[in-house]
Amino acid sequence: MFDLGTTFLQSVERNPRAPALVDDGVRLDYAQWGERIARVAAGLRQLGLARGDRLLSVLQNRHEAATLHWACQFAGVVIVPLNWRAKPEEIDYCLADAEAKAVFFEGVSESAVRYSTAARAVPRIGIGADATGATHAWDEFAAGAPDGLPAQASADDISLILYTSGTTGRPKGVPRRHRHERAAALAHVAQNLYRRGERTLGVMPLYHTMGVRSLLAMALVDGAFVCLPRFDTQRALDLIEAERVSCLYLVPTLYHDMMNRREALGRGTGPGPDIASVTKLGFAGAPMHDALLRRLQAAFAPQVFVNHYGSSEVYTFSIDQDAVGKPGSAGRSGVNTRLRVVALDADGVDDVVGPDVEGQIIVDLRGDEAFEGYWKRDDANAKSLRNGWYFTGDIGYVDRDGDLFVTGRVDDMIISGGENISPVDIESVISLCPGVGEVAVVGLPDERWGQRVVAFVTRRAGEAALDAQTLDAHCRSSDLPNFKRPREYVFVSEIPKSPVGKVLRRKLTAGEYTPLAGGANPAA
Q: What's the pLDDT tens digit per position in 275-290?
């Protein structure tokens, strides 16, 4: 298999004048971008970074970050991208754990880098005038004479290390080889039906597998990566219209915010920004509730609407290319994947459950997209890797048609009165109630039931009258079993989420929210 540097060279050779990279004030074709990448690769070598060395990147999705990612692939250097909101202690930990030899940062991450003890001991390359405290300025670092684009890496070299969010302990490094990354990008192209010359909105962060996948997939199809450094609903809509973006791959939260903004604009001035260029929608990272699926289908009328279920460790678990046709379904295993659902208490991999029975979702590690184990974490490997299979930590079931439904995380399962209750199907029902913006369901301690089902809800604009009684009546009139019906509704201004849009249920269970009027315990 080709390494990733050679993969980029394919586009340079095949279609050198095709639009490749768009950012504020920057517009490059593949030949021009290749020259910039060559200069940065030369800069890495001048820093003393050699094949197999690691560097930290603490950057937003700007053109320099995308260029650095590709330069590392050519130089054989392992990029370790971190959340640009990282704290000094997170930088300290990841620098030491990855044994990184340089840090790239910008103004928004300058303070964290400045107060990182470990960062003081390595070269610090600053991007932009407000990236003070750098040992090297990007403009000088990237201005050297390029010596072509020789690929220094092989397909078996490590391409990058992604660090998990670490919500339950120390973050875990996920090393992925060039062949893993290329196979995942090829699968992404196939599963989303991308064609040559696609244009995507590059807003999912490059420290997240979804953002990396969008970047690599565009090179495979001679497509354009339209940078959006951080998500802004109006800016996203403007870029879709101005750059004729053809495909979107986002977490549900970003779609939700974008639809709210577009609908608000439409009520005031007409139909809202033009989104007709978008023909392919994809989402991942979290379930998408039925109401949002319907809104997106009505707004975009896409040719393909893909629910992608996967992780950093194994990019694709399963896909459904008609997300609206069977709401909630994660479809079937991807082109490089095998999966199973085994008993909730299973230690082995052969205790497969029958149709419609909830269990643990596990994935075959022999797949081309699968990693081989966590970075220096034998404890994590022992927990998640068993007999050649990856235990995802997710719960789900396969229906009688053979389609997978993901019902939650093992840690999110609510046990009330001895019943196992998944939050996902409850959230889908509540999302269909008129006036609901977002919803997250958790289990809170209860003296009688062990845990009681509690729904946290935001109201859509102009729906101040929505209250607990209305929601309870809606749930009673649905097909939701009574034992799953929420015993309490809490209205909040926002649902807490991670930087990439995943709902942080732990914050709700810890009481980290501000309640609004209208919540209540409805009659049992």
A: 999 999 999 988 888 8
